[in-house]
Amino acid sequence: MARLDTRLEAEGAEFLVLGQLLLHKIASYKTYTNMPGYDLVATNPESNKSAMVQVKSRWRTGAGGFPIKNFCCDFVVVVLLNRGSKDGKKEVLPPRYYVFPVDVIESAPRSKNWGKVNLKDIPNYEEYEEKWLLISEFLGEPNV
Questions:
Q1: What totals of helices (H) and strands (E) does the chain contain, helices first?
Q2: How far is Cα 5 from Cα 114, in angstroms, rounded to an integer?
Q3: Long-range contacts of 118-122, Cβ-Cβ distance < 8 Å, separation of 24 or more
Q4: What is the C-alpha separation between 24 and 123, in angstroms, rounded?
Q5: Is this prediction's pTM over 0.70?
Q6: pLDDT 10s digits, 76-90
Q7: Mean pLDDT in the chain?
Q8: SS3 of 51, please?
Q9: Residue 122 in contact with residue 100, Cβ under 8 Å?
Q10: How confident is the model at residue 144 (pLDDT cuts 50, 70, 90)?
Q11: What distance, in Å, lies between the first and last C-alpha atoms of the chain?
């Protein structure tokens, strides 16, 4: 099978994360395309702080890892889009979001050629699901 073109879905994942940040009352905006190291900027105008957020998405339901090579950000949000599979055998499910401080991802084991991180290799990775509060606290915002 030919490689699946998921560029539109990857762009959509960035907008999904932007929407989640805004819903969690974290002022944010999308950067210009192809900014090295990050896709979104979360801000707190009152404290004059910002957080650079890199979005990593996986299209396939049941995807367990993601490639990453650039760590010039404060957070990595992994979006498992759960859009099924190329052969149509996997179920389409709601997306899942994991909010990681970049140092957690940087210290995780990665494959040599792709720089792929497997979620299961991150200690207690489940605890980072929907952890938008980490970004709020980083920005010095009161608990939302």
A1: 3, 7
A2: 18
A3: 118/64, 118/65, 119/64, 119/65, 119/78, 120/64
A4: 25
A5: yes
A6: 999 999 998 888 889
A7: 92
A8: strand
A9: yes
A10: low
A11: 46
